[in-house]
Amino acid sequence: MSDLTLRDVLDFRPDPWHESAQVWGRLAQGIDDAAEQLIRGSRDLVHVWPDGRASAAAVGKGETLRAEVSNAYNPAKRVADALEQHAYAMVGLRRQAEDIVASARVAGYQVDMVTGATAPPPSADMAGGLDRASRATESVLQYLPTVVEYARAQDDATANAIAVNVPSPRVGFGTGRLDGVSRGVLEAQAGRSPAEVNAWWESLTPLQQEQALREFPDLVGQLDGIPISDRDVANRMVLERQSYLLQQAFRAANEHPYDHELLPADTRLLLERGRAELASKLRGIDAITSRLNDPNLPEAYLIGFSSDGDGRAIVSVGNPDTAENVLTYVPGTGEQLSSAGGGLKRMDAMAQDAAWAAGGEKTSVVYWYGYDAPDAISDAGGESYAEGGGPVLDRFQSGLRATHDAESPSRNTVLGHSYGSTVIGHAARDSDFDADAVVFVGSPGVGVGHVSELAGLRPEQVWATTAKHDIIGLVPDWGSTHGKDPSEADFGARVFRSDPGSFSDMTGTHSAYWEENNPARTNIAEIVTGQAG
User: Could you tell me the pTM of the whole model?
Assistant: First the structure.
């Protein structure tokens, strides 16, 4: 039981507690970093050294060490939290005690500096009792011993939190095994906000995180709110597995005589289409794999991947969690897994431009093919693709905020090309879209008639450009569906210049914004890095 006195409460100073909390916090972070390095550095030991007594001993020792280091993080973090909470709680109690003691002294009361008990001034006895004002003062003073009791209870709670988490020479800590993360627990995170997902993930030990990555990479890799580096590990596993399965299916498809004349024509056509689809998906996977493993280009991260349907792919140049500037590029009509190579080239081009424009600042560019894009122009007149993709993009942007690991927030820009701009418009129209700037390039409309209708953005945050000879200008008027062209003056966005393109190649002009010497590239880079006037 704490023997804290009123004098101790009044003399309390929080700075030493905050400083100690920071020391324990740094210790916890260091343990966490060391555990992650140990786990990922030794995870393949059993595969490269599978047999023998020495191998078994090494593997067993590695498992024990990984568990101990991993599980040591939480006790250190709990001590840091307990110290920090104690400082704030005691400051609040000190202020209450100071106010009550000041009132007591003004009224002439005597205060016991151990228990907080008070005694009325001698004049009260001489007068035969307390007047109304004194009785009111005494009702306040009666709370002073309670403040002392609260302080003692807080002291006991903090002492207990430290005692149960600091290792003892006899038993130590961290050697136990915590329960693993189940599929059900991971699936439940999909219904939570990215900020909540991030808090949950950070509450796990490194060993629990590693177990979730190893056993459920398909779930971990898709969760906005999980750090990019962890999603990259998970999605590379998914990519490798799905690539293997597709290759097996493609080999099997080529081994069968699907063109045999005895098969009905429609059956042969159906089988041939299936073979062509497998080939196109493998082409996209090869492009992604090559970019991830290219040693001559800046490091890339696989933030999302799926080969289901038309496929999905989210890849970044650099880590958005540690960059000062982050650009999310949303492609448009016709985007499929098979065409990911072109999107990755645009990603790299914008990353190169931003690096030039930003000086010493780090910029990460994300190729975000995370939605079902229209397959053809004939499909692009509908809003269903944007209505489906907008909330997914909105959540992704919130996830970038939740996982960003720096003292100050990054400058986040979202750029949509063609129908990708329509997706952004729906995200910004229907929610508090988390972006510092949006850029519409070659847009068929963004779902509204004026920039002020993008409720999640201010007009000065919205930029647009459409090349003079972009074929998007000849497409039948989408106005009734997608709203006004955002590069028109009366839309209210900030319009920037791009190369007019060629009248004889209007289709090519629609994709020429990323060609060398197109001023659109320089303007985009300056917007992304906050240099645009």
Answer: 0.71
